[in-house]
Each structure stands twice: as structure tokens, then as C-alpha cells.
Design a protein that fits this description.
Blueprint: H1 2-27, E1 40-45, E2 55-60, E3 71-73, E4 80-83, E5 87-91, E6 97-100, E7 105-107, E8 113-115, E9 122-123, E10 126-127, E11 134-139, E12 144-149, E13 158-162, E14 165-166, E15 173-175, E16 181-183, E17 196-199, E18 201-203, H2 209-246
Antiparallel strand pairs: 1-2, 3-18, 4-17, 5-6, 5-14, 7-8, 9-10, 11-12, 12-13, 15-16
Helix pairs in contact: 1-2
């Protein structure tokens, strides 16, 4: 009886874990550059007295779906999207170097170049700071940032920095608790001059809302089935106790 209840309880618990992953994906369906997490379930043997004939499910996130999201044209000079594989280097809140595909950039009152989450964009020597005041900013396909100083003529364009673009391989990347990606080794990735960006566009989330909703409905049905099994275990236990009292 204990095994019966344990199997049902663990199944319900793992269903809740899977639901949390799917809900997080759905919540980020409109987050630029977001990569959805995958889930999978596998059977695990329940060991104890006797033969391990019962199994319970274990839900885990084996990795991230690194497929590209849809490209959205904005026409904005500071919006960039990675072409193909690659990442934009940023400075994480803890000061470490991290990576993202979110390319909606802006600069603050000090000239610090940041993304929509106010995370500093990295160059070769650290976070990029633009020389203010400026009239125009443009970013070339190789990540070079050029500016026109305020009051200068249209033909005056000065190169001021280059965005650090990397491509260490998606199999080397893992998502941190802050939502940013890092190398599994913990070391910073080297600059890759072959990574190209498209200016005036951003990459959307690769989450498929319909797929996530269907998956959440399926998980909820499985959860309800596990709860019914727990109630059945309780009824069987109550009936067994009644028989013992009669005896």
C-alpha cells in the first residue's frame, strides 16, 4: 500500500514540476531572444522490500531548445539580431560574463550600452560606453558600433567599439537562474569574428504558445489521474482497516 501511495504521490509531484517548466515557457512567449526549456519523463524503479516491480515517473529538463525564434523587423538602429548561431556577450548582475540573444539595445544617461533588461553589453575590454552626446548610432554586421557626434555633418561617422559576439557551440551552454546563458566550464567564451548580426531587427521567442498550452493540459490531466490514485489508495487502506477490525 505504501508503494502504491508513493508512486501516485511522486507522479503528481513530478507533474507539478513539468507544469512549472511549461508555464515559464508560456510566460516568455513574447520575451525577445528567449529559448524554451524542454521536459521529459522517465520511469524509475521503486526499491524496497521484495522485488522492484513498481515504477514511478521522474520529470526532468534535459536541456534547452536552441532553435532560432522569428525575426522581427523594427527599423531601429540599435536593434540587432544574430544571424544563425552565436550569442551577444553581456555583463551579468554578479559581474560575470554571460550570453543572450536579446538584441533590443539602448544607452543610458552615461552612455552605457544595455539591453532591455538593463544588462550591460560587453566589448573587447568590458562594458561598452558610448561617447555622448551623439546624433546617430549604427551597428555593422560584424558588431562594430559607429556614432555621429552631436552637431557633426552627415558624413562624419566614428567607430567607437565592437560588440563581443561569441559562438562556443550550443552544447556548451547552460541557462543560469538569472535567465542568461554561460559556458558549462564557467570560463568566458572567445570572440568569434564569423558571427554576424542584422541591424534593425530583433529575434523573438522560440516558444510555440499552442504547443505549450496543449502540453499543460496533458500534464494537468495526468496530475488529476495521480490524485485519483491517491484517493483509491486511501479507500483501500480504509477498507483493509475495517476488515482487520472485523477479524
Amino acid at each position: 500500500m505504501d508503494k502504491f501511495l508513493y508512486v501516485a504521490m511522486t507522479g503528481a509531484k513530478q507533474g507539478m514540476n513539468a507544469l512549472a517548466v511549461r508555464a515559464n515557457n508560456l510566460a516568455n512567449a513574447n520575451t525577445d531572444g528567449f529559448k524554451s526549456d524542454m521536459t521529459q519523463a522517465r520511469a524509475m524503479q521503486a526499491f524496497g522490500e521484495g522485488m522492484p516491480t513498481r515504477v514511478f515517473s521522474m520529470v526532468e529538463s534535459p536541456g534547452t531548445d536552441f532553435s532560432s525564434g522569428p525575426l522581427k523587423t523594427t527599423g531601429r538602429d540599435l536593434d540587432i539580431a544574430i544571424k544563425g548561431d552565436g550569442w551577444i556577450a553581456v555583463q551579468a548582475p554578479d559581474g560575470s560574463e554571460a550570453y543572450t540573444r536579446a538584441g533590443h539595445l539602448k544607452f543610458d544617461e552615461t552612455g552605457l550600452l544595455v539591453n532591455a533588461r538593463n544588462t550591460p553589453i560587453m566589448g573587447a575590454a568590458g562594458p561598452i560606453v558610448l561617447p555622448l552626446p551623439i546624433d546617430k548610432v549604427q551597428i555593422s554586421p560584424d558588431g562594430i558600433i559607429s556614432v555621429r557626434p552631436q552637431g557633426a555633418t552627415a558624413e562624419v561617422i566614428e567607430e567607437v567599439a565592437r560588440i563581443k559576439l561569441v559562438n562556443p557551440g550550443n552544447d556548451q551552454m547552460m541557462r543560469g537562474e538569472d535567465g542568461l546563458f554561460r559556458l558549462m566550464s564557467g570560463l568566458p567564451a572567445p570572440n568569434d569574428p564569423t558571427v554576424q548580426v542584422e541591424s534593425g531587427a530583433i529575434e523573438g521567442s522560440n516558444v510555440n504558445p499552442v504547443h505549450e498550452m496543449v502540453a499543460m493540459i496533458d500534464i494537468q490531466r495526468q496530475y488529476e489521474m495521480q490524485v485519483k490514485m491517491m484517493k483509491n489508495a486511501e479507500e483501500i487502506d480504509r477498507a483493509s482497516s475495517s476488515l482487520l477490525r472485523i477479524g
